[in-house]
Amino acid sequence: MGKSKLILEYLPDNISSMLYKVIKQDLIEIRLRANCPLQVVKITGDSYISPTGHKVSAGDKAYMLTAADLKRAFILLCKNSIYALERQLREGFITIPGGHRVGFTGQAVMEKGAIKTIKNINSLNYRITREMTGIARKIIPLIYDKNTDYIYNTLIISPPLCGKTTLLRDLVRIISSGYPAIGLSGKKVGVVDERSEIGGSYNGIPQNSIGNRTDLLDNCPKAQGILLLLRSMSPELIAADEIGRDEDVKAITEAVNAGVSLLTTIHGQDLRAVRERPSAASLLKRNAFERFIILSKKRGMGTIESVTDRDGREVSRCLLKS
Hints:
The chain folds into two domains: 4-127, Beta-Lactamase; 140-320, P-loop containing nucleotide triphosphate hydrolases (Rossmann fold), CATH 3.40.50. 25% of the residues lie in helices and 28% in strands. The chain is built from nine helices and 16 strands. The strands form three sheets. It has a seven-stranded antiparallel beta sheet. The radius of gyration is 20 Å and the shape is globular. The relative contact order is 0.12.
């Protein structure tokens, strides 16, 4: 069974049978909402699914999900081990085999001003992980100095659903395994995978290819994970996804001061927008990053708009056209 079809095992039988024909297509999300039509999402748009498993454009022709459907799906996701998933439940997602992540909403249960868990689930978002190996090859020469064997501290800037995690994962894979064509030997890479999206781990074991020399810290807050890797794993590069909190900034600063290269991502339209975020602005003022990769989906997911240095100068455009 393909990685995407593993999702069908975590859906109620009636919904699984409706999605069997379309799951192999280039879906990026399956959306279940109580008392709403069953929906699938592609980069090019969304559509509904009929009770016979066909795509339809009108919601009244689609299968209407019930609260019972959502309850059955959530039980399948938890595998009757809600306690083991306590942290993921607080964060609003569950990772399943194949590296797919399922986000959810419902009724938040609060404790001391923080979310303790979420119950009475009313919406599920099955985000489908698709590995795209090799897409980072044209980027590597722009963030690697072969004369000094140095990976520049690099920040990938991207709006949601533009492929930043997919690109990050492939960069990690290549840097870890090596790229002899440009003289890059494999480096020790530490990955802090707070939401299990880079390695796509299930029970701690990565389901995605992340390289031969990669040490993965799964389901761990970024700031704590970065410091743990620095203390215990002697990484040459640390990678993490979606920085933004003040504690992330402090940990990244520690890593940079320790001489470890950084590879990470942040949500944003462009570098100017990122500079307006207080936590990110403090890192940029300290010149923590030396390369910026800007993504969009103007020509499809993962469109590389530019790769610039810390002064905003494009590193090279010709290499991005191939």
